[in-house]
Amino acid sequence: MFTTLMLLLGPWLGFRLLGALGVGRFATWRFSAAHGLATMLIATGTAHFAPATVTMIPNHADLVAMVPPFVPFPHLMVYATGVLELLGALGLVLTKTRSAAGVSLAALFVLMFPANVYAAIADVPLGDDPPTPLWFRIPEQVLFITVALWIAGAAHSPWVRRILSAPPPGSNPVAVQQRPGQRLGSRRPN
């Protein structure tokens, strides 16, 4: 039940420890999280292609069993989401694509959410693990979405900053910029 969560948190903390020891690439929690999430996605994405003979991790057949009945072509969907997870992992470790990868992965996690709900309700086991209960799957999925958006820096994008720094409706923008003791329209004394 905790395997996927540990696949995120363990590497994240490990990379951050490397940052604390002087490895510049992992100097921030956000960059360490990007590499931690990438590590998790390599492991989970690889499982999408594992043959049924593999039992130490979830395999392709286990993941197909998670696909809700209303989703067409379950085998193809498992392969496609595996490819997207692996591409997302690559995107997270490359600085130029990290933001886009984070937002795209958050969207992927939202799209995969019904499979997680179905697996919990239908008691679908993954590999040798018992079925993961819904009370655990929902917060875990929300955590993955939140971390992906945080890595993307969604709150630091220019349009969000503009919205957050805009003066409240009905306020006088000139008065907001006025210095204490300064009259409107006057120059600041030298």
Order of helices and strands: HHHHHHHH
With helices defined by DSSP (H or I, 4 residues minimum), what is the helix count? 8
Range of helix content: 55-70%
Beta-strand content bin: under 5%
Give the secondary structure arrangement, pairings included:
Blueprint: H1 3-20, H2 29-47, H3 60-66, H4 74-93, H5 98-121, H6 134-152, H7 158-165, H8 173-177
Task: Provide an overview of this structure.
- This protein has 190 residues and is mainly α.
- The chain is built from eight helices and no strands.
- Helix 1 (3-20) packs antiparallel against helix 2.
- The model has no long low-confidence stretch (mean pLDDT 85).
Quick gist of this model?
With 190 residues, the protein is an all-alpha fold. The protein has 8 helices and no strands.
List keywords for this structure.
globular; 63% helix; single chain; 0% strand
